[in-house]
Amino acid sequence: MEKDSVTPSTVPVLVPMPADRPFSYGVPEGVHAVPGSIVAVPLGPRIVAGVVWDGPADEVDPSKLRNIETVFECPALGAESRRFVDWIADYTISAPGMVARMILRVPGAFDPEPPTPALRWTGREPERMTGARHRVMEIARDGMAWSRGGLARSAGVSHSVIDGLTSQGVLEPALIPPHPVVAAPDPDYSKPDLSQNQRPVADVLTGKAKAGYSVAVIDGVTGAGKTEVYFEAVAEVLRAAKQALILLPEIALTHAFLTRFEDRFGAKPAEWHSGLAPRTRERVWRQVAEGQVRVVAGARSALFLPFADLGLIVVDEEHDSAYKQEDGICYNARDMAVVRGHIGKFPVILASATPSVETRVNAERGRYQRLVLADRYSGAELPELRAIDMRRHPPERGKFLSPVLAGHVADTLERKEQTLLFLNRRGYAPLTLCRVCGHRFQCPDCSAWLVEHRFRGEILCHHCGHREAKPEACPECGTLDHLVACGPGIERIAEEVDLLFPDARTIVLSSDLPGGVKRMRLELEAIADGAADIVIGTQLVAKGHNFPGMTLVGVIDADIGLANGDPRAAERTFQLLSQVTGRAGRFGKQSQGLIQTYQPDHPVLQAIISGDSEAFYSREINERERGHLPPFSRMAALVVSAVTRPESENHARALRRAAPSAEGIEILGPAEAPLALIRGRFRFRLLVQANLQADIQDYIRAMIANAPKPKSSVRVTIDVDPQSFL
Ligand code: ADP
Ligand code: ZN
Q1: Where are the beta strands (DSSP E) in 1-55?
Q2: 435 and 582 co-located in one domain
Q3: Which of the listed residues 622, 642, 666 is the one where a domain comes to its end?
Q4: CA–CA separation, 465 vs 446, rounded Å?
Q5: For residue 56, with 0-12 CB atoms within 10 Å meaning exposed, 13-18 middle and 19 or more buried, which class applies?
Q6: What is the helix (H) or strand (E) element at residue 671, kind and residue range?
Q7: What is the model's pLDDT at position 8?
Q8: pLDDT of residue 57
Q9: 426 near 467, Cβ under 8 Å?
Q10: Does ligand 1 come within 6 angstroms of the Cβ of 226?
Q11: Which residue's CA lies nearest to atom 21 of ligand 1?
């Protein structure tokens, strides 16, 4: 092929590669590529999607310069989105191209959606009027274009009636623009009557919605109306013709949220989560880029949608650990939302009944404004909370419900009210062992026990998904029928409940429920409608749902979360148990939360039971400060993994040796990870701990640059601000 006589100008393009900088590409004549343009470029033997960047690119030998293949007919990524990518790449120590890839994951959306074929009235009347034709004409005469199927359905006629009218020239083919994924929300569709407590908070938020960057924290008990209040800020942003993003930790399960939004704004928000059909994903992405979709309610990945003009982010349940992504690029969506607001100069609202310690400290430092909603909107009392001391009220052998809790369940049934029994453990039993030889069933690829799932007749690994049929004989000693299940999972609690209350209607809910999101939503609706007497569930049922008839929440084992050595164990337990017990009594009836524990005097349990959350926070914040833990210091974890143990350990040691010495920065490890083996990879951890003034990213970059380049079989994951220490 002949080379262009004019040397094409070059542009930097971010490609999905672990490189520090964009690559240079040539721009053929007549091709218009500006910063943010989404392009197809050759990369090795492949054609990949990339985005034209600004700033310096890698130098390339002019003879090796390759040209941009295509510039997609797609809105260019705005400067704010581009600076956001740069910022995240820098903060998480990742390649900017890999961060940009999180935006570009929907290649089907880069080309405009084709118009939809439709039919329209030509103005001519049918030759012979029949009842069916009459019904079609009643609809078609207003001149709107209809899809063939839509018109047939609306008129209640068969397709052949429509086809007949088309062949007579009464209807003619037309093209209509692609249908919006959601209708436009109306900020004034149905304004709520805010309570005396809510009004001032809403006023502050709407004020902020009109100004630039700020972070507000709505700290309000479960049922205080936090959602109702931040909807006012969303309305304000809609009035200013900007877009809003509402992040939710379990969007797939928050069907009720969508309905509530629709009640307030007359239309649903666009959803964004992993459960969407591919076609819907593409259309949402495209319409967000074009600015047609005004409000997105989504999971953490929604932060990486190509918003045309974003004006507000709300992070609901901001403390939730679901906001932390722990593979690939490790980021916390709550913190990145704040960064996005700062870059875009717009407000960010964090909402929670149990804010994270980080957020509370940020509020104390004056960086975030804390707005308190102290009472439930309905005026309903919060549930009365009590610990059940399991040392004094032990369950029967092999059982897990204390007689006290069982008694209250019976009373609640009697009153025809609902009970939630909460245990954060899927399956039947977390460990199976042989009574004869003591053999324990372990995952072959992970350092984890296999969890029995009795409904499925399998034992499986919760880390890698490895599964086997539940054996009858011990593989070690061959003895038949002597395998015992140790400890409870929710299936085992369900079995106990069935024995105790054979006539009660029970629902068992966890992520194991077959049928996915759809089924889960139906079950949750059924519970809200009173179709179950006793719900037995994991944290899936703890979050955000409104169950009007629920007046008793029983926590089967409050000690689970406190046992591990995680620095956030206390905080997590406090949040989870507050959330779970907050499911009870949201609609005025007297309600109770009963917490089974072997350590009723533990300060975390005391704080929950006394309802004195301030005591919890001040104690926890003090301990963090004394222990020099985040947010009073910064941490980053480096996890090295490899298919052999020595390879992993050696590289971890090499990293440690390569660590520079720096004022205010300490490095710990390497140590074998508590989860030493996952999916057949051996893991070692290093932990970097730094003063707030120190540059932890620079330190880690230097360490990686100084260390020998590992073999390709060795992986290093960098997790800045880690949540998990496993
Ligand atoms: P939170 O998010 O703080 O847990 P919600 O916003 O879910 O609380 O509100 C709890 C319940 O109270 C919901 O059913 C909600 O519709 C209702 N509610 C709250 N504020 C109002 C209001 N101003 N007008 C009408 N209903 C309200
Ligand atoms: Zn496994």
Answers
A1: 9-14, 23-27, 38-43, 46-52
A2: no
A3: 622
A4: 10
A5: exposed
A6: strand 665-678
A7: 54
A8: 83
A9: no
A10: yes
A11: 225
Residue nearest to atom 19 of ligand 1 (CA): 225
Q: Cα separations (Å) of 345 from 31, 190, 507?
A: 33, 29, 46
What 3-state class would DSSP assign to 184? coil
Our answer on whether the CB atom of 218 is closer than 6 Å to any ligand 1 atom is no
Query: Could you tell me if 87 and 346 are in contact, meaning their C-beta atoms sit under 8 angstroms apart?
Result: no
Q: Does the Cβ of 192 fall within 6 Å of ligand 1?
A: yes
Alpha helices per DSSP H over 15-110: 79-92, 96-103
Ligand nearest to the CA of 442: 2
Q: Which atom of ligand 1 is nearest to the CA of 226?
A: 3
Count how many domains the chain has.
6
How far is the C-alpha of 688 from the C-alpha of 669, rounded, in Å?
9
* 309 and 414 share one domain: no
For residue 511, give the H/E element and its range: none
End-to-end CA distance of the chain: 56
Kindly state the tokens that stand for 45.
């033997």
Are 418 and 561 contained in the same domain? yes
CATH code where residue 697 lies:
3.30.70.600
Which letter does DSSP use for residue 144 in this model?
-
Question: How far is residue 210 from each of residues 198, 235, 241, 597, 689, measured CA to CA in Å?
Answer: 19, 11, 11, 48, 39
* Contact present, 259 and 279 (Cβ < 8 Å): no
**Do 689 and 611 sit in the same domain of this protein?**
no
Contact present, 115 and 104 (Cβ < 8 Å): no
- Provide the pLDDT confidence category of residue 2 given band limits of 50, 70 and 90: very low
> Is 580 found in the same domain as 515?
yes
Residue 219 tokens read as 């700290």
Are 370 and 388 members of one domain? no
As given in the structure block, the two tokens for residue 378 are 């309905």
Ligand 1 center–CA 373 separation, angstroms: 11
Average pLDDT over residues 621-641: 94
Do 85 and 100 have their domain in common? yes
Determine the Cα–Cα distance for residues 412 and 394; give it in Å rounded to an integer.
Answer: 21
Buried b or exposed e, range 476-490, using 16+ CB within 10 angstroms = eeeeeeebebebbbb
Instruction: Pull the structure tokens for residue 176.
Output: 């209509």
Query: 197, 222, 228: which to mutate for ligand 1, most atoms within 8 A of CB?
Result: 228
With a 6 Å cutoff on the Cβ, whether 194 touches ligand 1 is yes
pLDDT one-digit tens code per residue, 280-338? 999 999 999 999 999 999 999 999 999 999 999 999 999 999 999 998 899 999 999 99
- Distance from Cα 1 to the centre of ligand 1, integer Å: 67
Rounded to an integer, the average pLDDT of 263-273 is 96
Q: Would 528 be classed as within a structural domain?
A: yes
The packing angle between helices 131-140 and 159-167, to 10°, is 70
Distance CA 323, CA 359 (A): 14
Domain range enclosing 128:
116-176
651 domain-assigned: yes
Q: What's the CA-to-centroid distance between 710 and ligand 2, angstroms?
A: 25
Q: At which residue do the structure tokens 């300490």 appear?
A: 666
Residue indicated by tokens 């929907």 = 106
